[in-house]
Amino acid sequence: MKKMYCTPSGLARASHRFGMRTHSGIHSKAHTTRNKVRFSPLGFPIDQVMQRAITALMDFWTVTNRVHIVVDRPRVKWKVPWTEFYKINFDGAMFKEEDRAGIGVIIRDSQGLALALLSQVIPLPLTVVDLETLAAVKAFEFTFDLSLGQVILEGDSETVINSLNDNSPSLAPFGLLIQGINNYANLFQCISFLHVHREENNVAHNLARHACHVTGFSVWMEDVPSHIFATY
């Protein structure tokens, strides 16, 4: 499966072009004003040059500070998998003040109905990527335990998803975990790894956050907990 990326924004290019036009307009204005002073009998006195320059500069700052280039990104929603496929979303959350972390997993069918959910608390990993990798491993194990054949694992960590889609050995600290998933991937009829936006991963994220209230782990079958229902 092809990896999904955010559409690049044209904000920087738009800002650059706007800036060039603005500076061009200032230079043109200055050139015109200079010619008025030089060639027109109605030019302002020389002792007003500094004051007029300061006023013009303040006007420029006022105008540019009012200009906002807004690029609206369409609201992204979770998408159901193809018929006979299941989507498994996973995420992690850190509770640094408690030296713990949470893992959340939700499995849904092609109608968008929840088949199983998991919330687990674990010791705090060293990095966010380590946590996201552990969440991917738990999602993989949870899915395998339910004997699902055709699955799509979705997460919002681009680093983890890219590593899962890369068949070459990884020298990263989490590389052995990634390799473990890939080694057992052939146990499924079909398995794909897909990167998604955070908005498409809200339920898994809320399950990960809920882990701070869990001792060990909690599993729900075909029932969405009320505290995450608003994002489902």
TrEMBL record:
A GO MF label: RNA-DNA hybrid ribonuclease activity
Domain RNase H type-1: 89-211
Organism: Lithocarpus litseifolius
Chain segments annotated as transmembrane: none
InterPro entries: RNase_H-like_dom_plant, RNase_H-like_EbsB-rel, RNaseH-like_sf, RNaseH_domain, RNaseH_sf
Name assigned to this protein: RNase H type-1 domain-containing protein
Signal peptide: none
Record Pfam families: RVT_3 (PF13456)
